[in-house]
Each structure stands twice: as C-alpha cells, then as structure tokens.
C-alpha cells in the first residue's frame, strides 16, 4: 500500500479543499466527455492542487501545458474506471479497511490518528475513503487486463537466474575437498561399472557422515590426494572448470557428485564458504484429517467427530494414519494417512499456518476451522532447508514480470485511449 499513501493523501487534501470553496457552477462544468463518462472542471482543479503539493512549483511547466497533462491523465483514469466497471471489479468495505489499516501502519500511526491528521488538513473521511477506493479499483483493473497479456517462458527465468547467480557468486570463496577415481577413456565396461559403483558407494558413505579426508587418502588419485583432497580456498574463476560448473548454489557441507570427466569420476565436498548469501527456511512435515460440514453434518457435528478421533488416538484404539485414510475429506493426503509432506507453512491458509507454526512436534491440535472445513493436525518434524536457488528463481521471475508488466501496461493504456470516444466540450480557462 506504500505507493498510495502520499498521492492519496495529497489528492484527498485537494478534493476536500475544492468541496469547501468551489461554487456549484464550477463543480458542474463538464470539460470532456469520455465514452459514457465525463471529466469536470473540479476534477482538473483537484489534480492540479495535488501536483502542486507533491512537486516543486519552480519545476512545473507553463499553466496551459500542465492543465493538458492533467486532463490527459484524468482521461486515462476514467477509461480504466470504465474498464473496471465492465469487468465487474468492486472494492468492498473489508478490503478498503485493510488498505487504510496498511496505510496507517506505513505511517506508524493508528487509523484514529490518521483520521485526526486528515481532519486537521480539512479532509473529510468519506472523501479520503473514496479516493483510496478509486485508486484500488484502477489498480485491480490494470492488473487483471495486463497480466493476461504477459507470457514468461521458463527459459527466460533460467537465463536471468543464471546471470543473477553469476553476479552473486563473484566474490564468494569456497574451501573444496576432492576425491578422484581414475578411469581411462578406453576402459572396458566391467571396469567402468566397478568404478561407477565405487564412486556411488563413497558418496553414500560421505552422506552418512564418513570422514572425507580419510576416504580421500585411501581412494583418491587426484592431485591433492595426499592432503586429504583439500584444495584450500578458491573463487569460482580460480578453480578447475569442472569444479566451477558443479558448484551452482550449493552451500557449506554439500556433497557434489559423482560426476564424470575425461580422467574419471569426481566427488566434491564444500568444506566451507565465505561471502555466500543463502536463504534458509523452516520446512514442516505434518499430517491432518479434514471433515467438511454438509447438509447432514453441522459445524458442531464435524468438530465433535474430530474430538472423538483425538480421544481414540490418545487411547491407542485407532491410529492417526487409519482414521485419515477412512474419514479425511482431503483426497490428496487421505491416501497417505493424512501426510502433507515437507512444506513451508506459508503455503497453508492462515488458520492452518498458525497451527503448524505453533504446535509442538508430536502433539495433535484441537479441532479448528478453515475455509476448507474442520481439521486436526499433527506436526511430525521440522527442518531447516536451503532455498537459495528457489529465491534466485523467484527474484528472476519477479524482475521479468515487472519489466514486462510495465511494457504491456503502456501498450494497454494506449489501446484504451485509441479506442475511446473523447470530446472536449468545455475550456479549462473559462470563468466559473
């Protein structure tokens, strides 16, 4: 909501001032017809005052140029409002109040303090609310029409993410450990299979916690074998290309490989990292049972049914797994005993997220309601997961979306203007 705060406050000041001081004739004077709508002289004067409040008057263009720019903007706004009406877009009071709450929060004041601030500036609460609703309506119409024109290909995201990764990794240093299993290019199949099997076994041992240095001393044929495979600290551009190509967004402790080159199989471990910005998130493994109220099952009935299930589980009469398979109305998880798999809690609806975030591991929640129905949930386990790669992908997608949105928004507005009936029927400089 940040983008609305300054402009809306200034607009509301202008509108309020005009409502107090303007004569009835000035308010009623039509300047321009836009399809089935009109722009009044009061609209022009209101926006002119808004511009004056937000800009250095010394940098404003001549009066006639400024008024034409204002009229052009009002025409575009009116066209977008007409498009919103055609699409059936309506900002209800609940969303409006949420926007106002957000504006007040951004200003570090309460809503009541915001009202007082507006009142001191001669702004009526109703005019302020109307201006916010107008801006939200325009924004939603623009988003709805422009987003459907945007197509972002996976290859575009991958390409930009690779560029971002390369920049992020410029000053990162890695301490690498390396095991090389030698295999000649002309080796027989039996030998190739044996070396591949040995490489996979070494990776399994390392992932199970075996000491890398000991395994390197015993098995590696690489140039650092006698050092326990330790290559020391290196930036990407300093290490062998076959190493750099495998690093990607892996962090400290990562086991990479086995991967093949012309001299055999390689296994890498990132022993340590300096300068890498990583994104860690908490993932939760949970399971739930969902009961949906219906014509024959009330909310109280659904809640009572789940309470009985909790009692059965606690007494050992039934298992969570069996009850979920038999009764849960969530088909995707019911077949797995209610198991939702490893997920970040942000994927869940607010009430479910709150339970998953606060419930101790191994405890079953009391029955609670969401938009989907009544649930009980059990948190089985939590873990920290590295989402650096996903974060870079998301950043690349947002950058592409913003770039294409701005381009398509301009094209859409030009098309709206070109297809509209616009006629100026009054002069801006007429006396009221």
Automatic annotation (TrEMBL):
Principal cellular location given in the protein's record: periplasm
The protein, known as: Chaperone SurA
Isomerase among keywords: yes
Domain text: The PPIase activity resides only in the second parvulin domain. The N-terminal region and the C-terminal tail are necessary and sufficient for the chaperone activity of SurA. The PPIase activity is dispensable for SurA to function as a chaperone. The N-terminal region and the C-terminal tail are also required for porin recognition.
Enzyme class at the top of the EC tree: isomerase
Enzyme Commission number(s) from the entry: 5.2.1.8
GO CC terms: outer membrane-bounded periplasmic space
Swiss-Prot/TrEMBL keywords: Chaperone, Isomerase, Periplasm, Repeat, Rotamase, Signal
Substrates-to-products reaction catalysed: [protein]-peptidylproline (omega=180) = [protein]-peptidylproline (omega=0)
Keyword DNA repair: no
Locations listed in the record: Periplasm
Source organism superkingdom: Bacteria
GO molecular function, one term: unfolded protein binding
Biological process terms in GO annotation: Gram-negative-bacterium-type cell outer membrane assembly; protein folding; protein stabilization
